[in-house]
Specification:
The chain is an alpha/beta fold. It has a single domain, classed as Toll/interleukin-1 receptor homology (TIR) domain (Rossmann fold), CATH 3.40.50. Helix content is 39%, strand content 12%. Strands 2-1-3-4-5 form a 5-stranded parallel beta sheet, sandwiched between helices. Helix 1 runs antiparallel to helix 5. It is globular.
Length: 171
């Protein structure tokens, strides 16, 4: 099996947010090749291979991940898949970071995530704090301090321009 270390749980409707988040992680941290799983990313190195049993693939990789980022939005909190993934991380006691967007707050967290150190995806300092934590947990070196600044700004812009009632607004 591959060496997935970071599992990005998200609703496929939030694809643009998840892709921007992965861009931030890659800019900020020296992640090993194919160590991040983000199933809706356009780049195949982050996705599951074609013609696999997706349920089995996600379960196996969630089990081996050292850290789970839960992109929590109005879309994901209604997604059975996201809830399964977060429940699996909870059961395995995997370090999980709730990343909030779309008007969700710490009070919006599912019961199993209450008390977790949630981060707002519109707050640069919250994002930097999570990146530092991931670096420590997964032993991935931080890149120079400015290397992710533009990507963080891009992520915040994507989150702020998102339409939570429909598909993402592409400009």
């Amino acid at each position: 099996m591959g060496a997935i270390r970071l599992f990005v749980s998200h609703a496929h409707k939030d694809k643009l947010i998840a892709m921007a988040l992965v861009d931030v992680i890659e800019a900020a941290l020296e992640a090993p090749n194919r160590a991040i799983l983000c199933t809706s990313h356009d780049d195949p190195k982050y996705r599951e291979p074609d013609n696999v049993n997706i349920s089995k693939y996600l379960r196996e990789h969630l089990s081996e991940s050292g850290c789970v980022l839960g992109v929590l939005t109005p879309n994901s909190i209604k997604s059975p898949w996201c809830l399964f993934e977060l429940g699996g991380a909870w059961a395995k006691v995997t370090q999980t970071y709730p990343l909030l967007a779309g008007g969700l707050s710490k009070e919006s967290l599912p019961a199993a995530l209450k008390g977790k150190d949630a981060a707002q995806l519109t707050e640069p300092e919250d994002i930097r704090r999570v990146l530092a934590d991931i670096s420590e947990i997964l032993k991935w070196k931080m890149r120079s301090t400015g290397s992710a600044a533009t990507r963080i700004d891009d992520l915040i812009e994507v989150v702020q321009e998102y339409s939570w009632n429909s598909s993402p607004q592409l400009s």
